Amino acid sequence: MIKISHLRKEYPNATPLKDVNVEINRGDVISIIGPSGTGKSTLIRCINKLETPTSGEIWVDGNCITSKKCDINKVRQKMGMVFQSFNLFNHMNVIENIMAAPMDLLGKSKQQAYDDGMQLLRTVGLADKAFNYPDELSGGQKQRIAIARTLAMNPEIILFDEPTSALDPTMVGEVQAVIKELANKGLTMMIVTHEMRFAKEIANRVFYMDEGGIYEDGTPEQIFENPQKEKTARFIKRIKVFENLITSKDFDFIGFNTSLEEFGRRCGISQKAIYRMQSVFEELCVQIILPELSKDFALNVTAEYSQEDDSIAVQIKYSGKAFNPMDSDNILSLKLAQNAAQSIEYAPCNEEGFTNMLVVKIK
Ligand SMILES: Nc1ncnc2c1ncn2[C@@H]1O[C@H](COP(=O)(O)OP(=O)(O)O)[C@@H](O)[C@H]1O
Ligand SMILES: [Mg+2]
Asked: pLDDT by residue (tens digit) across 121-145?
């Protein structure tokens, strides 16, 4: 139904979409997730032609909507869009908001537009608000009206851009319930959302966006329970990462410790745990590993904090001959490191530039 090939969108200071290639089938309900700034909004705005792609093609039902010859108004009639902010006309009451476009653009009679509009208000549970004005409604009600207004154009595809992110937490559920009902009716939908449970429940396909495109495309089970790619897994597990490469014995030791502490604060981990991370770094890296390394070396420290199980793992990779710090005769430093750690595991490493790897779980 929608085919996107080599879609690229550049802005002066960012290129959120580098090369997007994907096909969307009729009846697909797609949740689009990913860190902010990864082009989720840009992608759906390109599909709706609210943005003009820099290059590439988008086909909707066999029409190339990125071609100059395409009648975009016709295409837009097939496509509804629901935004974070509801964009209702405040000077019109609810039913007038819903009747306007079908009368203007579809040529419906007033009576027909009214009857159909009332029917839609019943589907979103707001028939009793038909003659109220938007400012008399809650955020959740306004968004349900906005959805009814979109449905009034009888679209084949609905694009949602964070439809619940402007709402009070108490109103998120009522809007999600309406969207779920539409999914059950077989409408084709793409929904950008940061509500992970909703994203998982509603969709038959999930796009995880990162690195200038759809980084992983899979079923909800794959993306949420068994992601195949590293960044998806990190995002799903809410893993926050700190990474620092050291290539000189005269590296900025104080700067390193300060940024490790800032990382810990950002993650909201306790002062004790931050101190343990620093202690592991000091004893294992500075006291034990660094003295073993020759002049040209690389030592990479990665700390990962997982929100899911509140755990911290420090990974230390380094070059040089095989050396297991557990064999060190610096007994005191070993003891101090072991005291800060829950476990320390050594393994050879065959990543480029590194030959040794240590994984330390912090207490
Ligand atoms: N109209 C615009 N002009 C310039 N830069 C933009 C514009 N819209 C988005 N961007 C940039 O493109 C990137 C992706 O934005 P967006 O698609 O809104 O991301 P997301 O919805 O995933 O948070 C961001 O770096 C943003 O600053
Ligand atoms: Mg966005």
From this structure: 999 999 999 999 999 999 999 999 9
Residue nearest to atom 8 of ligand 1 (CA): 42
**pLDDT tens digit sequence for 14-73:** 999 999 999 999 999 999 999 999 999 999 999 998 999 999 999 998 889 998 888 888
Asked if residue 328 and residue 247 are part of one domain, the reply reads yes
- The helix/strand/coil state of 256 is helix
Query: How far is 172 from 106, CA to CA, in rounded Å?
Result: 31
The closest-lying atom of ligand 1 relative to the alpha carbon of residue 192 is: 21
User: Closest Cα partner for 58 from 79, 30, 31, 38?
Assistant: 79
Q: Report the CATH number that the domain containing residue 283 is assigned in CATH.
A: 3.30.565.10
CB atoms within 10 A of CB 352: 6
* Mean pLDDT for the stretch of residues 267-274: 93
Pocket, ligand 1, Cβ cutoff 6 A: 11, 14, 16, 36-42
pTM value is 0.78
Q: Hey, which of 42, 211, 215 would you mutate to test ligand 1's pocket, going by the most ligand atoms within 8 Å of its Cβ? A: 42
> Any idea which ligand is nearest the CA of 84?
2
Which ligand 1 atom sits closest to the C-alpha of 162?
21
Cβ density class 11-34: b for 16+ within 10 Å, e for less:
eeeeebbbebebebeeebbbbbbb
Helix ranges restricted to H, the chain: 40-47, 72-78, 94-105, 110-123, 139-151, 169-184, 196-202, 220-225, 230-236, 253-267, 271-280, 331-340
Find the 178 Cα to ligand 1 centroid distance in Å: 28
Domain CATH code at residue 123: 3.40.50.300
Query: Which atom of ligand 1 sits closest to the CA of residue 161?
Result: 21
Q: From ligand 2's centre to the CA of 83, what distance in Å? A: 10
C-alpha 36 to ligand 2 mean position (Å): 7
My answer on whether 177 and 315 are in the same domain is: no
Q: Are 354 and 348 in contact (CB under 8 A)?
A: no
For tokens 């993306």, name the residue: 223
Give pLDDT, residue 237. Answer: 84
